[in-house]
Amino acid sequence: MTDPKLFTDIKKGVQKKSTDELLVIWKENKRTRWSDNAFEAIRQILKERSVELPEQDLPTKFVPDPPKKIKDLKMPLWLTAVCIIVPALIIFFLGMMLLLKVL
Fold this sequence. Notes:
With 103 residues, this protein is mainly α. It has helices at residues 4-15, 19-28, 36-48, 77-102.
């Protein structure tokens, strides 16, 4: 526990929940949704209510999406055309200008 006031506020908040709701939260063990302080508060409340704590599921943790591969990135067709056509036109006109200067 870090901040006693924070813990007290969390405990007051979860204390409003029914025993059945707290048991579901305790059992599911969703650590991405509930903080460690919340789980400690729930544990204390259930003990105060003389409830036997069930075994918790394995904790769920935040798993970030894997990075996208370049082939998965979709570029709009117009942007693809601009990226290909504009450099080609620039090269073409520079070549024409060089040819005209040489002749």
